[in-house]
Amino acid sequence: MTSTHRRILVGVAGGIAAYKACHLIRDFKEHGDDVRVVPTEAALNFVGAATFEALSGNPVSTTVFDAVDEVQHVALGQQADAVVIAPATADLIARLACGRADDLLTASVLVATCPIVLAPAMHTEMWLNPATQDNVATLRRRGITVMEPAHGRLTGKDTGAGRLPEPSQIAEFARTVIDGHTVPFDWKGRKVVVSAGGTQENLDPVRFLGNRSSGRQGFALAEIAAQRGADVTIVAGDTEDLPVPSGAEVVRVTSTRDMEAAMNEHSADADIVIMAAAVADYRPAHVADSKMKKGAADENLARLELVENPDILKGLVSRRASGEINEDAVIVGFAAETGDATTSVLEYAQQKFERKGCDVLMANEVGEGKVFGQSTSAGWILRRDTEPVVVEHGSKQAVAAQILDAVNEILPM
Ligand code: CTP
């Protein structure tokens, strides 16, 4: 998993979302990181220095003229393992793009050679303004990771692109980048469809057959794909109450057949199709209209008759072959395996890869306390004509970044 006790410089610019930086600081602290907060002068109009000092446990200054004997304007940037700026306002982004060093935050960024992540927040017009977009492109070209802002309610009555992503999303995304998984902004104009969570098959009005999937891996894939600039659709079955990634749209479904219909529809013009959902392989042959009762009259409950569900992934591979969905789409599957006395997890996954016919397959060992419902995962990425690549134990975002890198290598131009 991720290493702890990193020195993280949290920059805060002057926007109404500055209060959310408090949650971000707390998130890093809870992960064992040493946090130094460097606000701009304007940020202190929104949140006081005392709050940042109390939350980080470190002194706070804004100008290059504080702690001059320690050459702070150079030391902070040099010593940081990562710089995470949230919110990054249009003004701060412009100053960074110009290479200014007129306060402690911009000076620290100029000195830093560690990963730098910016989470912008501003009004939609400011975000879409060509000046801001050019500045963001300049920073990305220089290797700074600039997150896509969320869509939603902004200050005042307006809604649109420009909202700060949730602090937990920023923190998890930043950790992925800090751990060395670059997330380039190279999928603008690409369409990604990803299924997430478990499907549910009704037995009667109050019962269903389901599974333990949380949907976290599917949402993490959606998050990283959206941060690469793609338009993302999540076809979500039963999932935990996860924040919707910035730039992604969610289509809710319940049963396997609902999921199949939604995946077929949304994959028609997709460049990348990912089946991360835990699909119920069988459904009850009969769904009762009223609640099934215990006892003789309701032996249905004791002897459940099941019928097989369609295999959505296999269906998508055949639809691609027949031209019903984009013939150039890259199709990704998962394999949830426990292994047994005769066959290992990897061997079962390789057999499944052949059976399913997809282009990339992420093999996971599942079981008690492993993968399902967890925030971490591990396994192997399988691709045609290459050896399996080991995916070390890490957050589902980190795993997602590695899967999407594998996809990118075979994605047609
Ligand atoms: N999948 C699917 N439709 C199904 C079952 C599975 O599209 N009816 C997809 C899953 O989303 C995953 C892959 O197929 O991408 C493998 O799923 P998994 O549950 O590991 O395997 P199964 O196909 O269900 O086979 P088994 O239960 O025998 O391991």
UniProtKB/TrEMBL annotation:
Record region (Phosphopantothenoylcysteine decarboxylase): 1-191
Record domain Flavoprotein: where: 7-173
Positions that bind CTP: 281, 291, 310-313, 334, 352, 356
Cofactor annotation: FMN; Mg(2+)
Keywords: Decarboxylase, Flavoprotein, FMN, Ligase, Lyase, Magnesium, Metal-binding, Multifunctional enzyme
Claim: Magnesium is one of the keywords in the record: yes
Domain DNA/pantothenate metabolism flavoprotein C-terminal: 187-409
Catalyzed chemical reaction(s): N-[(R)-4-phosphopantothenoyl]-L-cysteine + H(+) = (R)-4'-phosphopantetheine + CO2; (R)-4'-phosphopantothenate + L-cysteine + CTP = N-[(R)-4-phosphopantothenoyl]-L-cysteine + CMP + diphosphate + H(+)
Pathway assigned in UniProt: Cofactor biosynthesis; coenzyme A biosynthesis; CoA from (R)-pantothenate: step 3/5; Cofactor biosynthesis; coenzyme A biosynthesis; CoA from (R)-pantothenate: step 2/5
Cofactor binding: number and manner: Binds 1 FMN per subunit.
Record has Transmembrane helix as a keyword: no
Region spans: Phosphopantothenate--cysteine ligase: 192-413
Superkingdom per UniProt: Bacteria
Gene Ontology terms, MF aspect: phosphopantothenate--cysteine ligase activity; phosphopantothenoylcysteine decarboxylase activity
E.C. numbers: 4.1.1.36, 6.3.2.5
Pfam families: DFP, Flavoprotein
InterPro entries found in the cross-reference section: CoaB-like_sf, CoaBC, DNA/pantothenate-metab_flavo_C, Flavin_trans-like, Flavoprotein
Family: In the C-terminal section; belongs to the PPC synthetase family. In the N-terminal section; belongs to the HFCD (homo-oligomeric flavin containing Cys decarboxylase) superfamily.
Function in brief: Catalyzes two sequential steps in the biosynthesis of coenzyme A. In the first step cysteine is conjugated to 4'-phosphopantothenate to form 4-phosphopantothenoylcysteine. In the second step the latter compound is decarboxylated to form 4'-phosphopantotheine.
Entries under HAMAP family matching the protein: CoaBC (MF_02225)
Record protein name field: Coenzyme A biosynthesis bifunctional protein CoaBC
Organism: Corynebacterium minutissimum
Lineage of the species this protein comes from: Bacteria, Bacillati, Actinomycetota, Actinomycetes, Mycobacteriales
